[in-house]
Amino acid sequence: MASFIEDYALLSDMNTGALVSRAGSIDWFCAPRFDSRAVFAALLGEREHGRWLLAPLESVNPAPVEEVRTERSYRENTFILQTVWFVGDASVRVTEFMPLSGGTTIVRNVEGLTGEVTMYHELAMRFDYGKTVPWVTRYEGTSSDGSPDPDAAMLVGMAGPHALVFHGDSVPEGDPESKAETFTVSAGQSYTFALSYFASNHNPPAPVDYATALTYTQDQWSEWSDLYTAPEEETEPQATGADMAGADTTSPEEISAVRSVPEFQEDATESLKTSSILLESGSNTSSLEVDEETYRELAQTAATPLAVPTEESHREEADARYREARLRSLLVLRALISRETGALVASATTSLPEVIGGKRNHDFRFTWLRDVAMAMDVTLTHGHERETAQLRNWILRALANNPRQIHAVYGLAGEKDDMERRLALPGYEGSQPVRSGNGSDDQFQGDALGQVLVTFANLREQGVAEDHLSWPIQKALLNAATERIGETDRSMWEIYGEPSTYTHSQAMLWAAFDAGVSAVRDYGMDGDAATWEACRDTVAEDILTRGYNEALGCFVSTYGGSSVDASLLQLPQIGLVAWDDPRMLATVKRIEETIQHASGMIYRYDNSDSHDGFEGQDNPHFISTLWLAEQYIRSGREADGRALLNLVLDCANDLGLMSSEYDFDHERLTGNFPQALAHISLIRVVQALGL
């Protein structure tokens, strides 16, 4: 049975990833890309669906005779995982990573620290999500003089186009379906193992030099982290929606005054100013919560008086935690951006359930336009110009087709595939169905189009030049958008129920038109600004009359509706209204009253009527909660925003990774893992704090 979702760590080579559990089992690995068919799929099934287990024998024994415990962490600013296993008085350290020097390889090293530890090693190679058992051959190595060399032995598993090669200081034996062994590691000893994927019509790759690969990979991650620059402290955006506040009727002049305000640092990024399409691709602890009075009582009974923490020291401690979480979130984004295509995968997994045992199980190994656009904002803001260029160019390639056929989600190379398949796997803790592919590919989502055009507007604000493809595509999208006003869709949440006219989708169309008008009027681009301006004003009037419920005094999810959802928290993000606009504050209040969990986190929406096509309510949502935290901070409720951010960080796993949702009843992460948009949203919250 798979481990809890929060017990997994991500390994990444920036083309694909692997999930290794606290129990020492790699239960998920797709090769050679994030969206390839899984080599190890025990995460969604059982051990026979493929896994690679490396752990002390005592930890896998039904009745261990010694106490076994673990401590794990990433090496600073990397995705090199180090786990120290303590077995009684003995200990070993397991170091695991995916080299960034090319190929598709997982390396695992066991180093004896104290005493002796017997390790259990099991390798069950599979292809096609566990369906295919490869033919495994052991090749005995030879030295330079042609004599046998046991240390150069290898296992090769092959099935059709796929192949794996295993090299190691000890090669496990066993039946064709699973190789297993035990070996003893003493203090000072070291064993290294490597598993590489390759096309079966090629020769197996050579063994990895552990020390060289480790050093290079650490240097590459560290070099990328060193590019990070903290954003300059932001000034509060102007009240762009202030003209809308309190108006019973809205004049065309008032509608025209609603303009988008970019929220990015002022210094332009030089390497992107002349950018053209690149052909290359390339244990959380909560903050101290002991009050001053308690400290004074302790001090009175102690021989030496205790120092009382000040409010300032608490703030500094919290700020340091937030900065660390932001840097880890930036690293997660880099780990999920494909070096090969420049796409950002939404998550490394498919079908991890949003509710354990439920049917909300989707394949997130795809690229959403929304995610890429939002990622570009934070990568550029934090000094990562190369990744911004990669994401920008991926968007342009994906959109290079009929502008009426824009999709919300694409494959990692920009493919358009609406085929959703069911996999013959038991599912995570029996959660069915298990899906491969994403059926939302063919859905129109107004927010995706709007988010893309808003992001390109932000790039212009930063001095990024348009090129021979970028502005013509934007013009085509804007002209096509004129036919989308008032169109129904299934919202950014991709519900399975009946389509409606969603306020958020229409607001993003408003932002798209506003970006187009600004491009012509402020930056001298060619285009039909008069038409786009008229469309912008029409959409604004529709939102204010149909997406705003006068009786409730707040914005609502759908035109003419009465319910709210978390997507409305993006209205001030795009500049439609000010963060502290009374109508926005009333919308926040309504969200707190109707879709806020007792913990403080919020749901995406109220599903008491099963309008999303599933029965029951899903779990509180990390992304939506972080949007609420940003809203709190930017509207003057910083203490509430910090409290919500602390709650989210407490719910993340010990390595700072987040899935999509959190089950408070069982204190567990749920949904696909790790979730790119959750980490993007966290970065925005920390940025809102001016850190």
Q: How would you describe what is shown here?
A:
This protein has helices spanning 57-60, 210-226, 252-256, 270-273, 292-301, 311-335, 369-381, 385-399, 446-461, 470-481, 503-523, 529-546, 582-594, 622-634, 638-651, 676-688, and strands at residues 8-12, 17-21, 25-30, 38-40, 51-56, 68-74, 81-87, 90-97, 104-114, 116-124, 135-142, 148-159, 162-168, 173-175, 178-186, 190-199, 367-368, 409-410, 421-422, 435-436, 548-549, 554-555, 661-663, 668-670. The chain has 691 residues and is of the alpha+beta class. Strands 1, 2, 3, 4, 5, 10, 14 and 15 form an eight-stranded antiparallel beta sheet that branches. Helix 6 runs antiparallel to helix 16 and helix 7 packs antiparallel against helix 8 (385-399). The longest helix is centred in the middle third of the chain and has 25 residues, at 311-335. The model is unreliable at 233-307 (pLDDT under 50).
Low-confidence stretches: 233-307
What's the multimeric state?
single chain
Classify the beta-strand content into a percent band: 15-25%
Q: Give the CA-CA distance, first to last residue.
A: 42 Å
* Number of strand segments: 24
Q: Which structural class matches the secondary elements?
A: alpha+beta
How is the biggest beta sheet arranged?
Answer: 8 strands, antiparallel
Radius of gyration: 26 Å
Shape: globular
Mean pLDDT: 87
Query: DSSP helix count?
Result: 16
Helix content: 25-40%
